[in-house]
From TrEMBL:
Residues 207-312 form the Formyl transferase C-terminal domain. Keywords: Protein biosynthesis, Transferase. InterPro entries: Fmt, Formyl_trans_C, Formyl_transf_N, Formyl_transf_N_sf, Formyl_transferase-like_C_sf, Met-tRNA-FMT_C, Met-tRNA-FMT_N. It comes from Corynebacterium pseudodiphtheriticum. This is Methionyl-tRNA formyltransferase. Its EC number is 2.1.2.9. One of its GO terms (molecular function) is methionyl-tRNA formyltransferase activity.
Length: 319
């Protein structure tokens, strides 16, 4: 089956590679325009664009797909010339104009990293971890006008581990989701797969702002643990120590029966209060203190919290 692929970041590369290794033919790639990255702010292609060009696939990088724009008209003409039977979408990052939805016979087939209708929107993996879900997964569905509301072709499930960061979970979902996407394309090509309406209560996972990643130390220890893992690595959970903004990588919960549990049975910490031990740094929460993992000060590399404390002699309350 002739396929155009629309995607941008690293997780989408896994799906593109899977399609390239399948019996289907990827005839073109849509991706975000080159963006400035790094300290030098030089222009860099998206990971999907880099792979496509390496494989000799034609790449289009429109600023917009709006029907009333010149770029949108160019995309429609390009797609009509390529004549794909389906357009596979994985984390493309741009709104698809409704006038383009019928340009391929099977439509635009999106791989979404949740079990729809759970966590519709831009940040389903982060939402699943932050809300303490035990199970998540990936779904393939046909894009329509609503936000992730289209009929579903198939799903795969994934257990969320107690120490999963968003990056850990998304990496696993990228691979299982890629297999699901290929299987969906196989089923469409064979005319044996029919999409089914979504059922159940919808929940939403909008795009994350940096402000949302701010740590609230007045929450219970388990909620803080989930929050930090959900926003690792991006945008990065953060807190303030005086005027200094620190990024915090995953923390460790204090377990019953441990030396730390015995210590804090006798000594209490207020929310955000630091306690520097010989080889550990703890922070108070609404319940039991948590052990800091990695800390990153502005302009510095991430370092172990104990090493950070030895070099900075931190005092005060994290806020």
């Amino acid at each position: 089956m002739r396929i155009v692929f629309a995607g941008t970041p690293e997780p989408a590369v896994v799906a593109l590679e899977a399609l390239l290794e399948s019996e289907h033919e990827v005839v073109g790639v849509l991706t975000r325009p080159d963006a400035r990255k790094g300290r030098g702010r030089s222009l860099a292609s998206s990971p999907v664009a880099a792979l496509a060009r390496e494989r000799g696939i034609e790449v289009l990088t429109p600023e917009t797909l709006r029907a009333d724009s010149e770029a949108g008209s160019q995309v429609r003409a390009w797609l009509q010339e390529l004549a794909p039977e389906a357009i596979a979408v994985v984390a493309y990052g741009k709104l698809i104009s409704t006038d383009l939805l019928d340009v391929a016979r099977h439509g635009w087939i999106n791989l979404h990293f949740s079990l729809l209708p759970q966590w519709r929107g831009a940040a389903p993996v982060q939402a699943a971890i932050a809300h303490g879900d035990d199970i998540t997964g990936a779904s393939t569905f046909r894009i329509e006008e609503g936000l992730d509301t289209g009929d579903v072709f198939g799903t795969v499930t994934e257990v969320i581990r107690d120490d999963d960061t968003a990056d850990d979970l998304l990496t696993r979902l990228a691979y299982s989701g890629a297999d699901l996407l290929v299987a969906t394309m196989d089923g469409l090509a064979d005319e044996r797969l029919e999409a089914q309406p979504q059922s159940g209560e919808a929940t939403y996972a909008p795009k994350i702002s940096a402000e949302q990643a701010h740590i609230d130390w007045s929450q219970p220890d388990f909620a803080i643990d989930r929050h930090i893992r959900a926003y690792t690595p991006g945008p990065g959970a953060w807190t303030m120590l005086g005027e200094q903004r620190l990024k915090i990588a995953p923390v460790t919960l204090v377990t019953a029966g441990s030396d730390a549990a015995a210590l804090f049975a006798k000594k209490s910490l207020s929310a955000g209060e630091l306690y520097v031990a010989k080889n550990d740094v703890f922070v108070g929460t609404a319940t039991t203190p948590v052990r800091l993992g990695m800390v990153q000060a502005p302009g510095k590399k991430r370092m172990d919290a104990a090493a950070w404390a030895r070099g900075n002699q931190p005092e005060g309350i994290l806020s």
